[in-house]
Amino acid sequence: MGVDLTGDWKKVLNTLDGAANNIKKNMSASINRKLIDAEKLVLAHVDDQDLGWDELSTSHGKRKEKKGLSPDILRSSNQMYSNITTNQTDAFTGAVGVKRGVTTKDGEDITDIAIIHEQPDNDGKKIPARKLWQPTFDEIKDTTGADLMDTAIKVFKND
C-alpha cells in the first residue's frame, strides 16, 4: 500500500525549500516598516499632545517658561524627542525607544526621564504618569500582528 501524490509537488517542495529564507527576508523588511511607523506615531503623540496627560503644574510651567523651554509635556529642550529611535537587532526583533546613554545638561539620563513618566499610575509624588509608550504599543499591536501574518502568508503564496 502506498500513497499516490497528485498535484504539483515540485512546486510545493520548491516553495518549502525557499520559505525559510523568504520569511526571514520579508519579515525583516516588515518589522523594519512597523518600527518606523511606531517611531512616527510616538513622535506624533508628543507633537499633538493627544494622550490625555495631566497638565503641567503651574509652578513647573512657569519654571520651564523662565528657562525658555517648551511648554509642551514630555518636551523641554527637545532632547528626549530627538533621541527617540528604532533598533532592529535581527530579522525578527526590534525596538522603538529613547536612545540610552544620552544625558541632559544637568546629567540626567533621558531614558530615566522616559521611564519615570511611564510609571503605572500617578504615585502622588512630584511627577505624574504621562504614558507615551504603552498607549502607542496598544494602538499598533493588532495591526502589527496582522501585517506580520500577511507577510508570512504571502511567502507561501509566492506573491
Domain tally: 1
Number of helices: 5
Portion of residues in helices?
40-55%
Shape: elongated
The chain-level mean pLDDT equals 86
Low-confidence stretches: none
Give the number of DSSP strands. Answer: 2
Cα distance spanning the termini: 37 Å
* Helix and strand run: HHHEEHH
Largest sheet: 2 strands, antiparallel
Rg over alpha carbons: 23 Å
State the strand order across the main sheet: 1-2
Q: Class by helix and strand content?
A: mainly alpha
Percentage beta strand: 5-15%
Question: What keywords describe this structure?
Answer:
mainly alpha, 159 residues, two-stranded antiparallel ribbon, single chain, 54% helix, 5 helices
Short summary of the structure?
This protein has 159 residues and is mainly alpha-helical.
Describe the protein in words:
- There is one protein chain.
- The longest helix is centred in the first third of the chain and has 40 residues, at 9-48.
- Strands 1-2 form a two-stranded antiparallel sheet.
- The protein is mainly alpha-helical and 159 residues long.
- Strand 1 and strand 2 form a beta hairpin.
- The chain has helices spanning 9-48, 58-66, 79-82, 110-117, 133-157, and strands spanning 84-90, 93-98.
- Helix 1 packs antiparallel against helix 5 (133-157).
- It contains five helices and two strands; from the N terminus they run αααββαα.
- It has one domain (9-157).
Topology of helices and strands:
Blueprint: H1 9-48, H2 58-66, H3 79-82, E1 84-90, E2 93-98, H4 110-117, H5 133-157
Antiparallel strand pairs: 1-2
